[in-house]
Description:
Order of helices and strands of chain B: HHHHEHHEEEH
Distance between the termini of chain A: 21 Å
Shape of chain A: globular
Strand content of chain B: 5-15%
Bound molecules: flavin mononucleotide, iron/sulfur cluster, FE2/S2 (inorganic) cluster
Helix content of chain B: 40-55%
Number of helices of chain A: 19
Distance between the termini of chain B: 28 Å
Radius of gyration of chain B: 18 Å
Structural class of chain B: alpha+beta
Number of domains of chain A: 3
Helix content of chain A: 40-55%
Radius of gyration of chain A: 22 Å
CATH class of the largest domain in chain B: Alpha Beta
Number of strands of chain B: 4
Oligomer: heterodimer
Largest sheet of chain A: 5 strands, mixed
Amino acid sequence: MGVKLLIDKANVPGIRTYEVYRREGGYRSVEKALKEMNPESIVEEVKKSGLRGRGGAGFPTGMKWSFIAKPEGVPRHLVCNADESEPGTFKDRYLMEFLPHLLLEGLIVSSFALGANDTYIYIRGEYAWITDILEEAINEAKANGWLGKNILGTGFECNIYVHRGAGAYICGEETALIESLEGKRGNPRIKPPFPAIKGVWQRPTVVNNVETLAAIVPIINMGGEEYAKIGIGRSTGTKLISACGNINKPGVYEIDMTISVEEFIYSDEYCGGIKGGKQLKACIPGGSSVPILPANLLLKTATGETRYMNYESLSDGGFATGSMLGSGGFIVLDEDQCIVKNTLTLARFYRHESCGQCSPCREGTGWMEKILHKIEHGHGTLADIDLLWDIQRKIEGNTICPLGDAAAWPVAAAIRHFRDEFEWHINNPDLSQTSNFGLQHYADPIHVPA
Amino acid sequence: MTYTFNETQMAELNRLVAHYPEGKQKSALLPALHLAQESFDGWLPTELMDYVASLLHIEPIEVYEVASFYSMFNLKPVGKFIFEVCQTGPCMISGSDDIIAYIQQQLTIKPGETTKDGVFTLKLVECLGACGYAPMMQVGKVFREHLTKEKVDSIIAEYRATVTK
Ligand SMILES: Cc1cc2nc3c(=O)[nH]c(=O)nc-3n(C[C@H](O)[C@H](O)[C@H](O)COP(=O)(O)O)c2cc1C
Ligand code: SF4
Ligand code: FES
């Protein structure tokens, strides 16, 4: 069993309530932070912990916090990003649904560190029942003196509000989220200015992911140095992985980032192997935006090293032969899955979610969906593959926000690693409507664990 | 038709507006539109959007442009219950196509349509954050997960029963 710092208590009966959460040691980090520490020393601990943002980009949290501007007389804000809409990702939901007080605890400490008095949780609109759970928890925390004015007699005031989104993946991008919080369309802003200087209502703002903010609790409790001892290299602490697709045990797992991808997929402690005894074909290891990898490159790097579930190892080989840990949305595809069709659903997703501000993204996502649709339905030509490649390249790096890249990468990786499957689809327009390319990609026999 | 919130709805609106700083009441627009949509017929007719604009002291156009951006706001009449079935990659590889086809067959409607009796609307949506519990759909405030044909049958029966009573 690996170390668990976040969801080890998720199954304690009643842990959702304040009473049980507190009895299990909850809110200790608030006492420690407010009474024994100051904002600067908290930021220092977070820096020492090596914690990297869990929303997808992996930016060091302590460093991000130290960038926040502190102009005289201007309020600052912390915003918790609970928009969680990246296909394959459902870990923040788990955390909020089962351990709402853990998130609140992390938010109070983080608000104190940033000097923010009014903190917002921006939650995707579809998580309506979780909004209710969070509001209930906020009421309990307020009634017990953890929120409101003069917390623990220290003079610190903290209020937490839940703000419901209304169905838009783009609002997970931090500047679109800020626009949405201001009651506008979710159009990402041009940076600079960065939110740390001018964020919500033009005030200095830090936007962090749910899991990032929850991780502040163990960091304060155990100290940044101890936290940094868990994991490996620059992948410190634990990470929540939401695993889905063709596996025996889909769900949310907390891992310390030293386990191998093979162990994660095949061990009964985690995914429990491929469903129905089938073979592993491919995997998107970090949410739909990151490159898909064929089984051989997933379990081992291009140089034959074991691949591990951490930031560095998953990206070993760059985009040529590697992928990314991303948001931790781990999508497993078995031998019966069609890469063309899977890529089509993702292209449709990004076309649907593009905010439409930049033409490469707006037009490019539309074209990619159209061409993939053609290929999938047996009307493609070989030139379409090159056209797809060309379009994705023209989107990448030419847009206001990273959604453009996020739309380009899955298409690029599918072609890079599964070009023969695209060709097969095109050369066999009828057969491809009723059968599947299966595992024909692999010249070498696929690794089957004992 | 003109719309007016009752006392409870108005209290809820005021609670939401109080979350934001003085003069930033426009920030309450998304929550206010949810409240408006849930309080009346499950969609946002122009008159209702105008009403929300007047409550938040903003221009109607500011409401229209927001309402049309977000997929949860319905700008056309919908059935009493909306089956919003996820069709994105992880759900697709877990069998959502079959579930979508089965619902269409059982309700004899296509995606985007409403049954003649006005009870059900079928909508295909993108990832709802339930990928590990696929196939799935959202109905109102709840997620119905691990869908099978049998489960779809009983869900349809369950909602039908609430309207025939
Ligand atoms: C299109 C797009 C969608 C995103 N969606 C989310 C999301 O749902 N949740 C999230 O935490 N971060 C999301 N991000 C990343 C945020 O912009 C931001 O980097 C993150 O919230 C920072 O928090 P962290 O440093 O704690 O990870 C998204 C980014 C992009 C470009
Ligand atoms: S890249 Fe796409 S989503 Fe991002 S701002 Fe441009 S059009 Fe909008
Ligand atoms: S893909 Fe259907 S819920 Fe995520």
